[in-house]
Amino acid sequence: MEKKLMLPANYNVMNEEEMTYTSGGDGFTAPFAVGWTIGAVISVANLIWGLDQTRTWIKNNKKNGENITDLAAKGINAAADYMGKSIGNAIVGVYTALNLTGWWPVTAIAWVTA
Fold first, then answer.
1. What are the start-end ranges of the H helices in the chain?
2. pTM of this structure
3. Which long-range contacts (CB under 8 A, 24 or more apart) does 40-43 make?
């Protein structure tokens, strides 16, 4: 048995530039993957930090028999006070609020068990 590579009759050899489109792209793929990974790590770290801060605040401010809406109103006021201190706090506060909202099942479990 002969081991020959049989090519179709209309086969054309591709030059190096054309091979870029068949090999998964050029050098831009890796930076996007690195950026996505860094963003994911920051997001998870922010989620853990936000959950810890929120649970600590709930433990320190929850009173027996207090209505959940009163506790939520106090929490919103405390978050607004935190974000009003500086631009950095505002950016972190908004990002954390969006992050906790996006991960709402995890956030809900953490708040209920606080």
1. 16-19, 29-61, 68-83, 87-102, 104-112
2. 0.62
3. 43/99
